[in-house]
Amino acid sequence: MVAAIDAHPRLPDHAAPADRHEGHHHGHDVGERLYLHRHTPVHRLPAHLKIIAAVAFVSVGVATPITRWEAFAWFGIILVVVLSAARIPFMTVLRRATIEVPFIAFAALMPFFGTGETVDVGPFTVYRDGLEAAASIVAKGTTGVLVAIALSATTPARDLVRGFERLRMPSVLVQILSFMIRYVNVVNSEVERMRIARASRGFEARGIRAWPVLARAAGALFIRSYERGERVFLAMTSRGYDGKMPGTEQRAVTARQWCTALAPAMFAFVGALVAMVG
Question: What pLDDT is recorded for position 118?
């Protein structure tokens, strides 16, 4: 499956460490930049099992009431164990988790708006419902972000696409995803060339007067991308493409792999159940 992704050139083995980025990334695709090459049990698990495990873990977290804070503490311990087992550096996790900062900033304002019972938190008087909603966003959002970091850091992008295919995701969506991963860097390179061309002509994006120029550049980029897509499609059709990508050999999954992949979600479910019952 997704031969277009596999055809993307990789860095040679003798490439300098600086060219491989942190963790010895393989390839230049956006998804590959998130992948950290390690030899751990987490990395060796089949991609579709990790996708199932990630969805199951997040589902448990979302279904757990925020009032059961001890359950979320347990989720955090489990995720720390998984990230440690995958040998993902703490600073890498922290840096990638900054994507959640805007949501945390929004959640920080919620306790000050609402109705009903109020509580005193230090020098502030906040609404209990808003405080619980904010805590829910932060706790459940952080859980989802850490799961996504673990998944992306231990699974190459092309393997994720194969995993979605093996889980019977609609073929059209799988192909769109595969080509997006393959060609997004081509579009990024085009954007960079256009930026350099504008800069070489003395253009500086300052104020509203620059908007017409940027709008024309965006239109030109869309047209070029559309034309490139047509050329790629015609090239594929001339080589026998009939709407389906060539498949790859699927290895059998052992019971041990199933147990290893689903263990974090099962532990999370048991912990949430104990917290709610207790």
Answer: 83
Where helices occur in 124-170 by DSSP H, the ranges are 128-154, 157-166
- Closest-CA residue to 93 (of 80, 102, 75, 106): 80
Beta-carbon contacts of 120 under 8 Å, excluding residues fewer than 6 positions away, are 126
Q: For residue 33, what pLDDT is reported?
A: 78
Query: Where do we find the tokens 């992306």?
Result: 152
- Cα 126 to Cα 4, 20, 68, 93, 129: the distances in Å are 54, 49, 20, 31, 9
Domain range summary for the chain, segments of one domain joined by +: 3-11+23-164+251-277
Task: Classify residue 278 by its DSSP letter.
Answer: -
pLDDT digit string, tens, across residues 221-270: 999 988 988 898 899 889 887 777 666 667 788 999 999 999 999 999 99
Alpha helical stretches, state H, 11-66: 17-20, 30-34, 41-44, 47-63
Residue type for position 236: M
Nearest to 265 by CA among 136, 147, 169: 147
Contact 275, 139 (CB under 8 A): no
pLDDT digits (tens, 9 = 90+) for 24-42: 444 455 556 788 888 999 9
Q: Is the pTM of this model over 0.70?
A: yes
CA 46, CA 202: separation in Å to the nearest integer?
A: 51
Helix (H, G, I), strand (E, B) or coil at 256: helix
If DSSP codes are grouped into helix, strand and coil, which group holds residue 122?
coil
